[in-house]
Design goal:
- Helices cover 71% and strands 0% of the residues.
- It is mainly alpha-helical and 282 residues long.
- Helix 6 packs antiparallel against helix 7 (112-124).
- The chain has helices at residues 2-29, 32-44, 49-58, 66-75, 81-93, 100-106, 112-124, 128-140, 150-157, 160-172, 181-191, 196-203, 210-219, 225-238, 244-248, 256-280.
- It is globular.
- The two termini are 45 Å apart.
Length: 282
Amino acid sequence: MKTFRQLLLCGLFSFTGIVGVLAQADSDIETPKHKAWDMLTTAAFSKRTNERTNGIRALGLLSENPRARELAENALRDPKPPVRAAAATALGQMQAKESIPKLEHALSDKNVSVVMAAAHSLRELKQNKSAYEVYFELLTGERKTGDGLVAQQLAVLKDPKQLATIGISEGVGFIPFAGIGWDAYRTMRKKDPNPVRAVAATFLAHDPDPASARALVKATRDKNWVVRAAAVEAIAQRGDPSLAPKVELKFKDKQPKVRYSAAAAYIRLNAIEESKSAKNSR
């Protein structure tokens, strides 16, 4: 009888444990962190090229994150050049040194935008030799891309100023707008020749003054999506976990680039918070 009672109790505890695990799993699905990853993963595998491009580009905010790196590396094999270029750019921004061999392989891509994005990221990762070889070949017009672009761009590629412009528009990205790219620059140039607010938001990323943090949070509600996106990225770079709830509010922003940047920013801030908690518990 005693043995039966013990077995019954063990079974009850086991059942309770399973229910607890399932409840925890169900609870995890509702967390902002899970929602953020779901947004980025859904974008990465979307049927729409634009969504894949924007989602992959936002991964550049996530350094030292194997999951983000794997998504970006997989995107280097995407059939669409804009997605491959975004992937190459993101790997450089996240300082993914493990991805150097894959970026070097991307230098043989048939599309010039992907080649330039890969070269830029390799330079970011201190692989200057590979990057400068590509720049030289493109500058002299001797590199064959196989996509029919070289013949019509030879004259432009020999003009350093024009080359710089193409480098931005073809996937290298516009600094300091790391995760929102050329579209941000093009939009700001069209509406405002001097995108000072967006640039100012970026430069405030590492200002320790709390007033700057408040200004960045306010800028996430700006009417211009470029300013909102720049502010979200600056908050991510700032690394203050207390601002994560403010970033979470942008999950529903009407502009996809802002939403994806917010998702990546939240994951980054959440990781910082978890790291601090782990250190404090020791």
